[in-house]
Amino acid sequence: LPYNINHKTKMWLLLTVASLISALGTTHGFFGKLHPTSPEVTMNISQMISYWGYPSEEYEVITEDGYILGIYRIPYGKKNSENKGRRPVVFLQHGLLTSATNWISNLPNNSLGFILADAGYDVWLGNSRGNTWARRNIYYSPDSVEFWAFSFDEMAKYDLPATIDFILKKTGQDQLRYVGHSQGTTIGFIAFSTNPKLAKKIKTFYALAPVATVKYTKTLLNKLMLLPSFLFKLVFGNKIFYPHHFFDQFLATEVCSRQTVDLLCSNALFIICGFDTNNLNMSRLGVYLSHNPAGTSVQNVLHWSQAVKSGKFQAFDWGSPVQNMIHFNQPTPPYYNLTDMYVPIAVWNGGHDLLADPQDVDLLLPKLPNLIYHKKIPPYNHLDFIWAMDAPQVIYNEIVSMMGEDNK
């Protein structure tokens, strides 16, 4: 397959190949040798954790505005299971269009969730409203427009405080360590700068591929920002932007397990964030694809496209001064002030990151009043921070070491 064909052509090829395999059936191995399909492709989060022999607990957090979020706990690791006493708490928050599965999708020695559990931490995995594991509300049905009227503003205002308070109450602790990736850093920046009471509950903020402004991003968001809001909603609707459904699992099990089309699948998965097949365990591709994208609201993606257009870090623009007055008591969306975020923060960013562009990160760093560490990894793209084969050596070991210093 030539490497110079464009993204759109590859996407159509992927769909064509998927349809072809569906029509022909799979019994004769039409496309040659299969990768062994990982059992985690069809598992839920608790099953994925238990599959590798780790203890798993599942809880539901109800936010102030009624969203029901599934959160997951790995209370201790396999390497230190004999000591089940109170452990320092770590909360891992995923990024845009993804879910808590991000932290446990690789083999245990390559997945940050398992690595931290084995290092002696009480590990909690969060989910943002609207994804596969957080798609319920006590007032609204997911079929309603009202359910999907949120963006990362509400994730920061409601999801993080509710989840963090739940975890601290459950563990009987006063503080936790927060690890965010991508949009997980965005909502951390907002929540910890606007909610001082919550900020005091964070011992240290570990930011992977941090995103505040997206002025220089080179992703699909650049194309989406060209659409006016009314046309954006005409094209994508006003509910879910990208649901996780059967077709993703089909791609994972029937298409991406075939080596011939691995290139196509890697491109389909990473079209928004960029990819580097050289630093990806391609045998895990089915797991990545079966659980991602996990879904978010059209309004959330519209908020991101607004941010690309404005180059500012600000709340969602509801489309008119009147609507903005209703939501913010001012005619324009308020800006988020990063200089109000006093939580100690360590930052890792990538030189080839299309979403958290190095130029945007360069603008971010001087605004952080309590930056305790920064490392730029020149070859890394946006998803390398959660899935790269060398992530333990490049990032995770440093995080474990820094957390160990925290405990002294």
Q: What structural class do helix, strand and pairing data support?
A: alpha/beta
Say what the CATH topology is. Answer: Rossmann fold
Shape label: globular
Encode the helix/strand succession as letters: HHEEEHEEHEHHEHHHHHHHEHEHH
Question: In the CATH hierarchy, what is the superfamily?
Answer: Alpha/Beta hydrolase fold, catalytic domain
**Which value, in Å, is the CA radius of gyration?**
21 Å
The number of distinct helices, counting runs of at least 4 residues, comes to 16
Are there runs of 5+ residues with pLDDT below 50, and where?
Answer: 1-5, 12-34
Query: What is the number of beta strands?
Result: 9
> How many domains, in number, for the residues?
1
By CATH, the architecture is named 3-Layer(aba) Sandwich
Largest beta-sheet characterization? 9 strands, mixed
Mean pLDDT: 86
Helix content: 25-40%
CATH class: Alpha Beta
Strand content of the residues, in percent?
5-15%
Through-space gap between termini = 54 Å
Question: What does this protein structure show overall?
Answer:
The chain has 408 residues and is an alpha/beta fold. The chain has one domain: Rossmann fold, CATH 3.40.50.1820. The chain is 38% helix and 12% strand. It has 16 helices and 9 strands. Strands 1, 2, 3, 4, 5, 6, 7, 8 and 9 form a 9-stranded mixed β-sheet that branches. Helix 1 crosses helix 9 and helix 9 packs antiparallel against helix 11. The chain is globular. The relative contact order is 0.15. The N terminus is likely disordered.
